[in-house]
Each structure stands twice: as structure tokens, then as C-alpha cells.
Amino acid sequence: MQKFLEVQAALAFAHAAVGNIQKVDADNIADAVERKSVDIERVKEIEKEIRHDLMAVVIALAEQSGDSGKYVHLGATSYDIEDTAFALQFRDAIKILRDDLVALRYALAELADKHKGTVMLGRTHGQGAVPMTFGLKIVVYTLEIHRHLERLEEIEKRICVGKMSGAVGTGAGFGPEALQIQTIVMDNLDLGYEEASSQIVGRDRYAEFITYCANIASSLEKFATEVRNLQRNEIGEVAEAFDVEKFVGSSTMSQKKNPETSENICGLARIIRGFVHPTYENIPLWHERDLTNSSSERFILPHVCILTDDILVKMTDVFTNLAVNEDRMLENIKNTKGHVMSESVMMTLTKKGMDRQEAHEMIRKLALEAQERNLELKEALLGNMEIARLLTTDELDEAMDPVNYVGSSVQIVENVLKKVRD
Predict the structure, then answer these.
(1) Residue 344 is a catalytic residue
(2) What pLDDT does residue 422 have?
(3) Taking Cα atoms as reference points, which of 83, 87, 139 lies closest to residue 113?
(4) How crowded is residue 55: how many other Cβ atoms within 10 Å of its Cβ?
(5) Which residues make Cβ contacts (< 8 Å) with residue 86, sequence separation at least 6?
(6) CATH number among 3.30.365.10, 3.30.230.10, 1.10.40.30, 1.10.3720.10, domain 336-407
(7) Which residues, including other chains, have CB under 8 Å from residue 73's CB and lie 6 or more apart?
(8) Rounded-to-integer distance, Cα 367 and Cα 376, Å
(9) Which of these CATH numbers, 1.20.200.10, 3.40.50.620, 1.10.10.10, 3.40.50.920, describes 80-171+195-323?
(10) What's the distance, CA 208 to chain centroid?
(11) Strands, E assignment, 270-370
(12) Could you give the CA distance from residue 128 to residue 130 in angstroms, rounded to a whole number?
């Protein structure tokens, strides 16, 4: 309601600036707004009688503005006020989301830096693939949040847009100074404005913002899902913080330490994405407008903003306090019996002159046979005459050491951290 009132004050100021009303009248209206003299209970009382929410605010403000009250809402239609107030709320929400994203990016960057050399098993299709570092995994997330911050900078100017062009967008109610009035109002409020509008601000703008929030939510669900998977008993490489003196994981299974915050993030992310569809349904309204968007937006806009803020804060807490089990990461690589080092051995053989395709086929057969017999890959390789001819035992050991096969992981982390910290 206070945003509604601030827009009304800006409109009165604009009317005074172009000479439609006296400055003293604009000052009286602004004073009533600044004093917060409009009582919410009075607004509700009026709305119950007249059944129009915005007009109830207009009447209540007029009551508090003395003789100047007759100039409240002069020339405007409801959504001049409501959509401009939405733009003010979007601006406030964007500041909160930006702060949240910066905090999460910082937490991720710190974690990536700490573990840039922490060797772990990379996985594809749920299977062990090749070694990587935990820092590389986390810096991928860091860069994703960095892109969300870049997107926010790009879309803000399209989201924080109001209108002051009256019924169906002609500005007729404002008289010949209509365009000037719109410019003065939006400059006063530090907002952009629709250069050509219907009776409302284009809902493609709202769809872009809600879709943006859904994009953030999807990233956070991805991150949280990884935490959940890595906390599984059979993997056990990371875990959410758990106060063993106080926290209860289960009402019956006393041993449980569940990734509840990450699960909560995943569930709420789905709710946020669920609002995308009705937001797009609000774009095709009849002619210059109808009210089918209004009821759903009263749910969509506050819920999406609140929930996106909520899961960003929770995700930051998860990564700030994440327990990382480096020993378990190395143990899980060891438990693959060396099979995840197949590519490393293949590349070593090609450096010794073996044809790449030949090396791949040879190791593929040896690896599959070793898996069938539950053998270490090294044992199968040592039994092959061609490999023994090309590689010494020391060379094979070096090729099969996961620490030696994380590529440019550390440099990638350092490069990205420099980018995001700059």
C-alpha cells in the first residue's frame, strides 16, 4: 500500500510540475504519504464497501489530504498506480536477490579455492568416469551463479518499468502534457516506463522475471541434488552440517543424518518453476486488458520472490558449512580398482607410439575382462605383453595415479576465481 501511495505522490508532483494543479496541493498529498497517515484498516473498510482495492486507497489518501484530496489519482487508471508500484517492489526484490547471489557466489568461491586440489571421482551416467577435483565441481557452480548475476544486470532495466498513460494507454485523462507527466513520475521514482502501453505494463516483462527466478531455482536444485547424492552412505564424500548434540535425523532411525536443507531446496525449487506456466498465460489478455492476470499475480509475484530468496539463503548456508571428506573421496577412487584410470593409460600408450584406436580397444577388452573377474585393472594390464613392452612398471604406476590425472583442474579454478573476484 505504501508503494501505491508513493506513486500517487509522484503523480501529484508531476501534475504540479506541468501546471495542472498547485504545488501546495501536491505537497499536501505528499505530506499525507510521508506521514503514513493512511490507515490500512480504513482502506479495508472502504474496500469492503466499494469492492475495489485501488480505489479504496485513493479515497483513504484523499481523506488525509484535506482540500487537496480532490486531486488524488487525477487522470490515472488503477494499473498506472499498481504496475508502477509493482516496479518499485521488483526493484526492492532485485536488490535482495542480488545480495543473496553475491553471498552464494562468495561461499562457493571460498569452497572451490579451499578444495581446488582435492582429488575426487568424476562421475557420468552415475558411473565412475575419471578423476577431477572437488574445487572444479564447485567452481562450475560458482560460474553459474556469476552468470545469474550478469543476467540480473541485463534484465533489471526491462523489469523495473512503470506506466502513467491512463485508460488503454492513450494518456487522454492527463491532457496535452500526458507524456511529460509520465516522464516526470518515472524520473521521480527512478524507474523506466512503457513508451507505448495498453492499460497495463506488458506481461512479457513479468514472464522474463519469473522465468529468471525459475532459472536460479533450477541451478540451486542441481547443486542441492549433488549434495544429496554425495551424502549417500555408499558415497559419503560430503555432508550438510549436523549438530550431533541437538539435531534429530529421524523419529525412529536414530542413526540418520539427512540432507534436509538440500531436500527442502529441491522441493521449493519445483514450486517456483510451477509458477512459470501461469505467468506466461497472463501475457495474452483480451484487447487492452482484462483482469485474468490479477488474481494469479497476487500469488505468483510474492511467492516467487520470497521462495527464491529463501532457497538462495539456505544454499549459501549449506555450502558455507559443508563437511568435505577428502579421505573418502580417495577411497572411492581406490574402490574402482583402477578402472577409472583407463583413459590415462590409453593416453600414455599413445605417447609411446601406439595407435589411439588400437590402445582404446586393447584397454577396453582388458578392463571388461578384469571387471568380470573382479581384478584390479593394473593386474590385467601387467599381464599384457604389448603393454609390458611399451611401459615400465613405474610408468604404469604413474599413469594410474589419480593425482596425476586431474588435467588443468587447479588452473581452471584459479582462472574462474580471478574472474568472479574481479
Answers:
(1) no
(2) 82
(3) 139
(4) 14
(5) 162, 201, 301
(6) 1.10.40.30
(7) 8, 11, 58, 62, 81
(8) 9
(9) 1.20.200.10
(10) 13
(11) 323-324
(12) 7
Q: Give pLDDT tens digits for 201-242.
A: 999 999 999 999 999 999 999 999 999 999 999 999 999 997
- Using the structure block, give the residue that is written with the C-alpha cell 487522454: 172
Among residues 52, 250, 295, 408, the one annotated as catalytic is: 250
Q: Measure the CA dihedral 329/330/335/338, to 10°.
A: 130
Q: What is the 3-state secondary structure (H, E, C) of 27-72?
A: HHHHHHHHCCCCCHHHHHHHHHHHCCHHHHHHHHHHHHCHHHHHHC
Residue in 391, 347, 394, 339 with CA at minimum distance from that of residue 365: 339
The pLDDT averaged over each successive group of 10 residues in the chain (422 residues) is: 97 98 98 96 97 96 97 97 98 98 98 98 96 98 98 97 97 96 98 96 98 98 98 96 66 73 98 98 95 95 98 98 97 96 96 94 94 92 90 94 96 97 85
**Cell numbers found for residue 29:** 498529498
* Residue owning grid cell 527464491: 308
* Bridge pairing between strands 238-239 and 192-193: unpaired
All CATH 1.20.200.10 domain ranges of the chain, comma separated, are 80-171+195-323
Given CA atoms 208, 210, 213, 218 in this order, what sign does their dihedral have?
negative
Query: Which pTM was predicted?
Result: 0.94
**pLDDT in the model for residue 344:** 96
The alpha carbon of residue 114 and the mean position of all alpha carbons in its chain are separated, in whole angstroms, by: 24
Spot the catalytic one: 125, 251, 277, 287. 125
Whether 251 is a known active-site residue: answer no
Handedness of CA 203, 208, 212, 218 (dihedral sign): positive
DSSP for residue 163: -
pLDDT score of 255? 67
All three cell numbers of 254, joined, read 536414530
Distance, in Å, from the CA atom of 5 to the CA atom of 82, rounded to the nearest integer, reads 10
How far, in Å, are 211, 243, 272, 310 from residue 265 at the CA level? 17, 20, 10, 9
What's the pLDDT score for residue 257? 80
- Per-residue pLDDT of 35-84, as tens digits, reads 999 999 999 999 999 999 999 999 999 999 999 999 999 999 999 999 99
Beta strands in 136-254 (DSSP E): 161-162, 192-193, 238-239
